Every structure is written in C-alpha cells, then in structure tokens.
Write the structure tokens for this entry.
Amino acid sequence: MLRTPLKLLSAALVAASAPSVTIAAPAPGAFIGTWAIEQIPPGGTPRQQGTITITRNGDALAGAMNLGGTEVPLTNVNDNGGIISFSAPLSGSLGLVLNYSGAIQGNQLGVASQDLGAGSYTLTAQRRGGAQSQVAQAAPASDAKAAAPLASAPPGARRAPARPSLGAQQAPGDYVARLLGQAPSAGPAATPPPASPSVSAPANAPVVASAPPPAPAAPAATPAQARRAAPAPQAPTIPALILEGEWSAEQTTPDSIGPSAATLSFTREGDRVAGVFRSDGQELPLFDVKQTDSDVSFSVVVPGTPYETILYRGTVQSDRLEMAGLGEKQGAYSLTATRQGAAAALAPAAAEPAPDPAPPQIALAPAPEPPPVLTPGPMPQEAPAPAPEPMPQTALVTPPSAPESTLPTSPLASRPPVTPYATPDGGAQLASLAPPAREATPPRSSSPASALPIPQTASVPPQRPEKAPLPVLRDLAPSGLAPTPLMGWSSRQKLGSRTDDSTIRQAVEGLVASGLNLIGYVYVEVGDGWQGARDAEGVLHPNDRFPDMKALGDYIHSQGLKFGLTAAAAPKSCNGMEGSYGYEELDARTFAEWGVDYVVLEWCGLDAIHPTEVEMRALFQKMGEALRASGRDIVYGISQKGQFNVELWAPRTGANVWRTGDELDENWASVAAAGFGQNGKEYAAGPGMWNDPGLLQAGNVGMTADASRMQVNLWAVLAAPMMLGNDVRIMTRETVAILSNREVIAINQDKLGRQGKRIAQAGDTQVWAKPLADGSLAVAFFNTGTRTTSVAVTWEQLGIDGPRLARDLWWRENLGIANDNYRVILTGGTSMLLKFSR
C-alpha cells in the first residue's frame, strides 16, 4: 500500500472519444497517464495484454495495472527523470510481487523484473493517445495557478503540473514538516542562508543581498570636531529599514507568464511583526515574519491540497523590498515591492534646528523565538476582569491592527441578501463568503443590566409551572435568514461548559489571525456554560465568568464576526445551567439586547415532561415565535439528536438549522456515520433550512489530514453547516489550509442551496453529486477502505449529457474534457472533489 508523509488525492480521467495531441517529447512527469502494455513471462509465453494507469498521489505517484481483466494496484511507483520503477502483485500467484525497473523513451516504456522464484518478466508499453497534451485552456482569472495545461486527455490520463525534485538533502516530508512548524527550526540568522544546492532559482529571480558589513569603528571625535563636522539639520524621513506599512508588490511564480499584482501590509505588535498578503481577491496571513537589520523573511501558505508553503527571504531598504521565495512544490518565486505613499511620508516637516544634532537612532526589536504551542488547561473559575486577556502565543500570526483611517479596504464584498425559496441566479461568488470589514474599536454603547452577572443574594429561583402551556401548532413563515449554510466555530466540543469570556475572545483572535474569518467562518457560538441566575424580574444574567455579555458581543461584532449562544429548552441545561423553559419570550428579548445573532436551543432532559413529537414541536415553535418577536434578526438552530424525523417539521417551528444526530467523536468512523447517513434527507434542505450532521473535526487529534479533507468534501456536497469543533487558538498551518480552500467552500455555499445525494456505491467506495446554481455539478468520490481502488461514474448516473470540463477543486486545475463517464483512482482513506461544467 502506497503511503507518503502527505498522502493526498489521486485521479485518472477516462474520456471517451478524446482527441490526442502529439508533442516531440514527454513533459516532466511523463509516466503519468495510461499505457497499453504487453507482459512477457519467462520463456516468452503466454503473453498478456492490458493497461497501466499512473496518477499523482500527493507528492508521489500511484497506479493500477490491468492484465486480462484483473486489476491490481501498483506500489513504490517512481519516476526519476524517465527512469521508472514500480512493484505489482503477480496475477494468479499467491503473495508474489514483481519489482519492475526500466526507462521511458518518448512514448515507449520498457521495464523488466528479476525476482527469485519467478524468473525474468519483461513489460513493454505504448502511451495511449501519444504524448501528454500541451494544449492549454484558460482558467479563471482569479486563480493564476489554475492555468495548468488542459486538454482532451487520453483515456485514463491525468495531466499533473511539473514539480521539481527537492533533492536528496531535502526530502519532501522533512521539508514540508519544517515549513509547517512541526519540526524545530533554526533561529534567525543575520543573513539569509544559501539556497539548497538541489534547487536552482530561475534566471529572472531577484538577487537577494545580505546586509552590508558594519564599517570599522572610528576614533571618538572631540566636541569641537563634532560641531564642525555636524551636517545641517534635515527633515525626518522614514528610517531606511522600517518594514511596517503598506507595500505595492509584484509577484512572479514558476508557472506565470508575467508578474501579478499584490499588496503587503506589515504592522508591529510589541516585539512581533505581523503581515498580510493580498492577491487575486485572497487575503492570506504571513507566518514567521522576521527582520534582522535589513534582512527580512516570512512564509505564505497558499490554501488547497496539496497546499503550497512559499518561504520568502530578502532585504528592505527605504522604500524598496526585494524577496526571493522557494515553494516546496512549485520552485522559485520572486517578489518586489514599493512602499505605498512614500512621497507623502517623506515630505519635510518643520523642526527647530538643534545645536548638536545627532544621527537618528533606529531601535529594532530582535526577531522573536518560535512561540510555544498552547496546551489548554482547566478554565478559570473566578470572575475574570472585563478586559480580554491577551491571546496565548501560538503558531498563528495576529493580523495587523491599525487605526481605522489606515486600514486597507478589503477587496471582498459583504454577503448580499438572498430571499429563501426564490430561484437564485448565478453561481456561488467567492466574494460573498467574506464577512464585513472589522471596526477599528468595539462600539462604546453601554450594556444593559441583563448583560452583567448578579450576586447570588440578588438572584431569585425561577417560578415555573410543573408543565408549561404550549402554543397551538402552526407553520411559521421563512425568516429570510441563513440563505447559505452557517460557517464558524463552536466552543461546545473542545471547551464544554468550562468556557469563559477570555477564552472566547482568544478564539475570536484565532479565527482572525488564521484568516478563516475572511473565508466565511464568521459565527462564534458560545456553548452551554455561560448561564448564571435570574433576578427578581425573571431576567436571566450570565455567570461571573462572563462579566459583560453585551461587551463580548460588541467585541465579536467589531471583528466582523457574528455572536452565537447555546440555550436550553428545559429547566436545566445538559450541564445543569439555567434553562429557558417557561421564559422563552423574556430570554429572547434578553438575547436581542446583547446583540446575539444565532441561538441554538438544546432539548436536554425534556422527554420526561414532554415525551411526544407534538409537544416537542410546540416547545421549539414557542422559542421560534419569541425570537421573531424580539426585535432582532436571530438565526435559530435546534438540537434534539434528530428525534421524530426532525427534518420533516423543523422548518415549521421557525428553525433555520437542526441537528440530525448525536455530537461527533474525533474520528473518521463517527464522521462517516453522520455524514453518509444524510442520504435521503436532501428534500428537507434549501436556503434558510439546513440539515446539520455535526461539527467539522479538522485539527482534532483523532483526524488525519486525509480524513479531514474527506469530511470537508462530504460537508461541501451536503450543504451542511461548516462549524468548527477544534481549538482555533492552536491550529497548525495544515489545518488552516484544509479549511480555507475557497473553491471547495464555494460548493458548500452555492446559492442554489441544494443538498447533494449518493448516486453510486460499491464496496468501500461512494460517489456523491450536488447540483450548482450555474448549471454545473459537484461530484465527490470517496474510498473509505484501506486498498487502492478505482471509482467510476457515468453521465447517466449523474443525470447529465454531453462533453463536460472536469476541474479538480483541491489541486485547483482543469483536468480535461470528459464525454460520458469518469474514473478516478484513490488510495485508501482518501477522497476527491471535482466540478463538471459545460
């Protein structure tokens, strides 16, 4: 079984009647594709004909061989500059594996196997359809990397981008691990280290100069000499080595025709420098920003799978920044930048000449050490101060904070309103995923008394009837809220009832620092554990761990995020906190006073009081009516473990989202049971109405990267809420990259709002499809087993016809034109998400 440090997706295209394009010689990665083979055993007979299909599997290659109708997986597949080797089980034998080696010459392949007990096998092959097509097709302008060569690929072939070898001294796993901060890195050096000898920079890469050596110290001058030699007073200017500010940049990538425009923004926060990179509508945080004198270094993680980490090094001098970068997969990059507003900043300012002017002293903070990884401990039980505690040092870089007048205008527009049940027009727009711009400071409006804790002596036990009266069942009209599935983070999985004001603020900072808020993760749901006591008027107050709920909501809103709360439908919550039973109208008005945008009402223990479906519906309807009457638009979620086929009646109670089962465990088995169990419930979902199978588990200890991508793919086609269940204060860059693929999220957020369904299943493989607003189709392939296998789907199964362009949404590249079927090869425990469009 092929396993690599970053075992990801692999695929092979089967396109009927696909024209071929011949070139003079194979491109790098020439082994990728489909080959017609003939295998000759020792003695020369019987010969067998068949095919070999080779695809990219993350940083490695994978494949399958079909001889006489029997398909076996290939392992240890290697292509070292046309020198080929792989292993394959011998058909008809019991446990015997042949190890082939040979070479490619043009479109011909010749390999041989010499194995004890089996003799010498030879295998000759001819590439189907000639050499790999080099005909390029335009990719979306918003994604320069997606302009990979595209053609009507030969059957079974997938065109993969050329990726230069990192050499023996930089194995891909070690290199990626170091860049992701999973292995200790060397401290900052005074000058950038030399580039690896195994990777050569292109001729047009900028020359990165080291800081000039300091001049020898001169003898101290006498005061008289100093006065005679002192220069005339000069107007102050921006010091030559100051990095902070806005920069207009041009970036050249290994596969770009010319430079592309970008902007850089740097701010200093104490002894740290933080930064943001903006290009093609994306806003990405800069990691590990370091400056030593004129030398600058930072890294950028480009989302996707495989995600790309670009490590930039260079120099800053006055208004010029020159950087050279090395991506672990794509090769060399260059980045040049000019400070924005330099002319205005350098304008002379009036100043009184000093009798003895001294040269300006530039105080540069030393580059900080790598921050420690935070291990969450027990939450404090005492009441914290109203002001938020500083966020723990993590691997994430806090984004710049500047006065409102200097904040750059975000290139991303706020989400437009969508009317539920109306027929949407157009596809999912990535710009609509961004939250509104953050305010420079939280609003200063005073908090109502309900937002503050009260002493225990001032609390009054609630006066509840043994069984509260319930409203007559009726259908509430759609609220117009939640036109697309909710995205955000919930504290309930990692923090439970131990949460407090400071921890929620830290989580907000984690979302913002990672850039996930810009992708659309905007809801911050405070789980059970905030509730305190009721006063003499029956008003519910928070407990001492939440000193001001409105101030917390104002802070969340100031970051462009939305404020969510979990409440209990019962007299007591799941964790024994004060519930809303009998106080629905009063609590709804209180939530509106605090600025709450999202309320989740949990059932928890009400079965003993209201055991029937009608009673359950009536009680959830009661809170739905109360929220409608609160005077504030509040998204309404209900959680009762999917009892009584909740999807059939939940929208009638005014709910926008409803849980369909238990909470998820931090493993793929739990995720698979909940996610695949949504098949057949697609009729209940649509704009403003969403089935919720549970929280995203990416970043939790029981989930591998492949399992996390499988859940993201499944939740995307399910149009399920993408609420995070990890600790967003301590995310790795790999987790951020998995969660921030805009093309995958656009499938989840598509305006049509259709939930996908399973259209094929065989053994450990499944195929799911989701129609999109632009007439295209998202198709997800899953291999939940442990063996490499192929997964095929036909146009008849998908309900489409005619030629379709296939696009890989994780590699962000167009694969080719398929006509009536499609086949992928997946290693065990992986998935693939494609988009088929005309």
